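in:
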């Protein structure tokens, strides 16, 4: 499915949390991967299907909603060792630019703020299409990911392993499966 240059699709879109996933993957004990996601977030974007490079996005994530399927680990992730949710209750992303790579791929660059530290990141997204759902909502779909070093945002906790290496990888893959609903023109 290529990016359709159709002005009728252009407009403001809102992230649909019940049909989207904002997740992450980190290596644990150097041998396996732990996957998690955030249960609560909101996001809006202006998708310009005439000139995709003019598209924008803003996402706010509730840090306390982190879920890896293990309550003890989730509690540790919410603590100061990792996200420090009481002091920094939100992770935010605000785009600063968009670039079309090919028929289905584009890059969204923006400022990611975690634990009060803001750094630029670029996320490569694949446009998966648009469709009108049974309720008359126009939806746009995207899948994306990027790799960050968590220490760049002050998420530094770790433990050395007896066999060498560390308990938690510094590199974390951020994953995005997005369904966004076009809003009625104001």
């Amino acid at each position: 499915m290529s990016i359709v240059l159709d002005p009728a699709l252009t407009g403001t879109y809102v992230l649909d949390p019940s049909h989207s996933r904002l997740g992450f993957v980190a290596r644990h004990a150097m041998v396996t991967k732990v996957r998690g996601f955030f249960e609560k977030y909101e996001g809006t974007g202006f998708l310009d299907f005439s000139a995709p490079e003019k598209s924008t996005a803003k996402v706010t994530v509730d840090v306390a909603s982190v879920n890896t399927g293990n309550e003890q680990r989730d509690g540790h992730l919410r603590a100061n060792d990792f996200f420090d949710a009481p002091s920094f209750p939100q992770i935010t992303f605000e785009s600063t630019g968009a670039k079309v790579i090919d028929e289905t791929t584009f890059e969204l660059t923006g400022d990611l703020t975690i634990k009060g530290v803001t750094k630029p990141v670029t996320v490569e997204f694949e446009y998966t299409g648009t469709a009108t759902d049974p309720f008359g909502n126009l939806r746009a779909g995207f899948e994306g990911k990027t790799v960050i070093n968590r220490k760049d945002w002050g998420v530094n906790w770790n433990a050395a392993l007896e066999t060498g290496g560390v308990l938690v990888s510094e590199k974390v893959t951020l994953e995005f499966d997005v369904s966004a609903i076009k809003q009625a023109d104001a």
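note: The CA atoms of residues 145 and 175 lie 4 Å apart.
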